[in-house]
Amino acid sequence: MEALRLVLYVLHMIAMVAIVLSPFVAALGRTTQVWAARVQLLIGLLLVGVLEMQDASLNHTKIGVKLLVALAVVACAEIANARARRGESHRPLMLAAAGLTVVNALVAFL
User: Fold this and answer.
1) Which of 79, 89, 73, 6 shows the shortest CA–CA distance to 36?
2) pTM of the full predicted structure?
3) DSSP H or E stretch at residue 55
4) Which among 37, 50, 38, 52 has a CA at the least distance from the CA of 9?
């Protein structure tokens, strides 16, 4: 179970890096950010499930806050993607998604 948790954690961190770098690296686009946000949300939920199965002591308030911020990240990425497909300005929302991802990491580690 510990190996599964570590694999999920590494994938979660890779998705986080993709979300944060997407607005700044041209090769990574808005679609990368959208998919990374979706994957990070899913893997985060799986990580909580794995930790619950291990009878770990979890701070459910922190998990709830992180879930709300993760949903906001996904929403910003999805809306930015939709705006870009319509030819509208989407960069501010991509930056908001990246910033909220950093906030979520700070909530996790502080």
Assistant:
1) 73
2) 0.91
3) none
4) 50
- Rounded to the nearest 5 percent, the helix, strand and coil shares of the chain are 80, 0, 20
Greatest Cα-to-Cα distance within the chain, rounded to the nearest angstrom: 48
Q: Pick from 22, 16, 45, 36: which is nearest to 91 by CA?
A: 22
| CA angle (89 as vertex; 17, 105 as ends), nearest 5 | 25
What pLDDT, in 10s, does the model give residues 85-102?
A: 999 989 999 999 999 999
Q: CA dihedral in degrees (101, 89, 78, 61; nearest 10)?
A: 30
Which of left, alpha, beta for 87 (phi over 0: left; psi -120 to 50: alpha)?
left
Residue 28 is given by DSSP the state S
